[in-house]
Amino acid sequence: MKKLILIISAVAISHSFALSQACQTDTATAKVRQGCLPSGIAFSTQQQIDNFPVNYPGCTVILGSATIGGADIVNLSGLSELTAVNGTLSISYNPLLVSLQGLGMLDSVGNTLLIGTNTSLEGLSELHSLKYVGYDFKIGNNPALTSVATGGQLDAVYAELQIIGNQSLTSLSGFDCLQSVGLLTIRGNSMLTSLAGLDQIDGSSMVGLTISDNPNLSTCDVRSVCDFIGSHPDEANILNNAPGCNDPEEVEAACGEVSTENISLEDTFLLFPNPANKTVTISGNNILAMREIMIYNQTGQKVHQGKPVNNTLDISKLRPGMYVVEMVTNHGNLRKKLIVQ
User: Fold this and answer.
1) Which of 39, 110, 120, 170 fits 134 for a cystine, CB–CB 3.0-4.6 Å?
2) Any residues with CB less than 8 A from the CB of 308 and at least 6 apart, and which?
3) Which string of b and e fits 91-101 if b means at least 16 CB within 10 Å?
4) CATH number for the domain whose boundaries are 10-22+32-255
5) Domain spanning 266-340 has what CATH number?
6) CB neighbours (10 Å) of residue 120?
7) In Å, what is the CA distance from 240 to each residue of 56, 161, 184, 197, 246?
8) Has this prediction a pTM greater than 0.90?
9) Confidence class of residue 39 from pLDDT cuts 50, 70 and 90?
10) 174, 124 in Cβ contact below 8 A?
């Protein structure tokens, strides 16, 4: 397997720091929540949406599931106090719905969040409070959707993130805080050219990857995909995209390229001795901001994770060879090569 060589740019580190600040959980006092509808509810008309605060005064949490789908639904303003749906939330088959205005307080969906077949829906920016999706997050067959940017703090999708058949979607930017998904499926988005926006997802958290039938998608060598291919080379389903992203081998080749335009941050932190055999010491400008250390072998497998003791790592159990040491800090992630003798 080709060795993946990563050189992190100073610009990327600054960007990571900005994202870490933006993704910090809001510590403000939470609004008192009141539940209703343990058996769930189906909204099929605009009148039902408008009457929700009258019929269920004070309700901020739907304890069951909720479906929103109707030929005359044009806005979701009647749900403006809603903070959570404990079951599945389906927003589908609303031909006149242009935005999700009214869901600005929604911060969690306990099961699947489905946004599909809304022919006029242009964006998801009104989901700016969303932090938690307990199962799948499916965005599919919304022909006018140009952006998936929520501006929210969603950091994990516990099953599948599925983005399928959105014919006007040009960018995946907007998942800036998303770090963990189970399955990642990107299929049939005809205008999509790049997977930029999914860079910060931990590839090791993924158990499956499908990237297919996106005819203009040529840039797939984002870090999350590179890490997944490095650790699961036979489980990446990549086909029928543009040249550069037509199969796992093409993507792996792009992942292995070293950019000469990036600025190496070799001196940001130091490993010594290097080569080493029993212990290695870490020093550098970011040492006080360090949260954890991860070590990967040449196939991309994580072989160590934790915090060093007195800035020293015990590597006595590692076999001789080359490794990549990743230091996770409040200012971003930095990587450096380590030789174990």
Assistant:
1) 110
2) 282, 290, 293
3) bbbbeebebbe
4) 3.80.10
5) 2.60.40.1270
6) 15
7) 49, 20, 16, 21, 6
8) no
9) very high
10) yes
